[in-house]
Write a structure and sequence with these properties.
The chain has 2 helices and 4 strands. The chain is an alpha+beta fold and 76 residues long. A 4-stranded antiparallel sheet has the order 1-2-4-3, covered by helices on one side. Helix 1 packs antiparallel against helix 2. The protein is globular, with a radius of gyration of 12 Å. The N and C termini lie close together (12 Å).
Amino acid sequence: MWEEKDNQLQRTFEFNDFSEAFAFMTRVALAAEKLNHHPDWSNAYNKVTIALTSHDAGHVVTEKDRKLAEIIDTFV
């Protein structure tokens, strides 16, 4: 589940291996590009940690972040 913390929506996803994690990141990247709203994220082997915040709105959670989070949830 997404957690709203420090003016971000945060979530860590865990996959079976690096290939699954990377495929997930690719899907997220394409969706983010379509929305022109890009995540702050990191990857370590099979884990992907994502933080969503709207930099142009003063680093707060906005509807853009919630929409991207909903889309990301469809990829797992």
